[in-house]
């Protein structure tokens, strides 16, 4: 007799996972395949690596692309999206021992406050680590502080390495709101600034997000060259000149490369 008609539950084999769990497991295996070196990966390769049927893999990939966890190159290849890259960076930052030591070393070497912030794939960054200056005057940024993309050195270091269309979309979404009288508030000025950032290799914030505070930042990239955040030095203007701060650019760049290795993304 039909089990549905009698109200008796249909039998299920002991080794078969519930539908929700099965879907979750498939998605996780597909994400692992996306994160494998050598991407972008073809649909068939992702399906084979994950052990998920090609039709199911395609449906999952479409959903991951829509959510920003995967990207497609338009030619049948798939790779990690910015959301997945940022998630990986955040996981790495939760194992802080080496990163904390590196930030503390940079702080002792320069005497300035050191910040590590990660890009959330949306309209801002979050400070995840800070080594505070031992000087009497300190910056207001704390762990957990949200940093504006267009008005912070770390934000501009990230924007300088994003596609132009994405930068324009972010500018439209945020409105480039003025934070101080020095904040860049037009797309044209921001575009010029990002050209200078790429030429220098680091970004500057000249009292654009906080009065009496200047900052310098270097981008932090994942292993595929996408920016996932930045490492910054901050100083109060009446204690450190712009020239003095920029003299630390080589040390900052080297430290940013160290952060990449510690995040296991470089």
List the topology elements.
Blueprint: H1 3-6, H2 19-34, E1 41-42, H3 43-50, H4 54-67, E2 70-72, E3 77-80, H5 82-93, H6 97-110, E4 113-119, E5 124-131, E6 146-148, H7 153-159, H8 164-174, H9 187-200, E7 203-206, E8 213-221, E9 227-236, H10 242-246, H11 249-262
Descriptive keywords:
266 residues, alpha+beta, Arc Repressor Mutant, subunit A, Beta-Lactamase, 2 domains, 6-stranded antiparallel beta sheet, 3-stranded antiparallel beta sheet, 11 helices, 45% helix, 19% strand, elongated, disordered N terminus
Q: How does this structure look, described?
A:
The chain is of the alpha+beta class and about 270 residues long. It has 2 domains: about 5-80, Arc Repressor Mutant, subunit A; about 85-260, Beta-Lactamase (2-Layer Sandwich), CATH 3.30.450. The chain has 11 helices and 9 strands. It has helices at about 5, 20-35, 45-50, 55-65, 80-95, 95-110, 155-160, 165-175, 185-200, 240-245, 250-260; strands spanning about 40, 70, 75-80, 115-120, 125-130, 145-150, 205, 215-220, 225-235. The strands form 2 sheets. A 6-stranded antiparallel β-sheet has the order 6-5-4-9-8-7. The chain has a 3-stranded antiparallel β-sheet with strand order 1-3-2. The protein is elongated and about 65 Å long.
């Amino acid at each position: 007799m039909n089990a549905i008609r009698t109200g008796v539950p249909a039998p299920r084999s002991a080794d078969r996972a519930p539908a929700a769990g099965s879907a979750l497991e498939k998605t996780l295996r597909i994400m692992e395949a996306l994160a494998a070196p050598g991407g972008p990966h073809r649909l068939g390769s992702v399906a084979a690596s994950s052990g998920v049927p090609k039709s199911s893999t395609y449906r999952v990939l479409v959903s991951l692309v829509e959510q920003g966890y995967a990207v497609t190159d338009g030619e049948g290849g798939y790779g990690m999206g910015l959301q997945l890259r940022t998630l990986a960076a955040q996981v790495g930052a939760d194992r802080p021992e080496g990163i904390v030591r590196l930030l503390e070393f940079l702080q002792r070497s320069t005497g300035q406050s050191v910040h590590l912030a990660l890009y959330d794939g949306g309209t801002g960054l979050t400070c995840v680590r800070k080594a505070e200056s031992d000087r009497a005057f300190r910056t207001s940024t704390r762990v957990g502080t949200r940093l504006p993309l267009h008005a912070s050195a770390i934000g501009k270091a990230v924007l300088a390495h994003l596609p132009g269309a994405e930068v324009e979309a972010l500018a439209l979404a945020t409105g480039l709101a003025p934070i101080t009288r020095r904040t860049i508030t037009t797309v044209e000025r921001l575009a010029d600034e990002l050209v200078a950032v790429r030429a220098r290799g680091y970004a500057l914030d000249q009292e654009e997000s906080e009065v009496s505070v200047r900052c310098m930042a270097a981008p932090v990239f994942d292993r595929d060259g996408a920016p996932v955040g930045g490492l910054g030095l901050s100083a109060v203007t009446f204690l450190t000149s712009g020239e003095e701060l920029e003299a630390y650019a080589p040390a900052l760049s080297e430290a940013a490369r160290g952060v990449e290795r510690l995040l296991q993304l470089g």
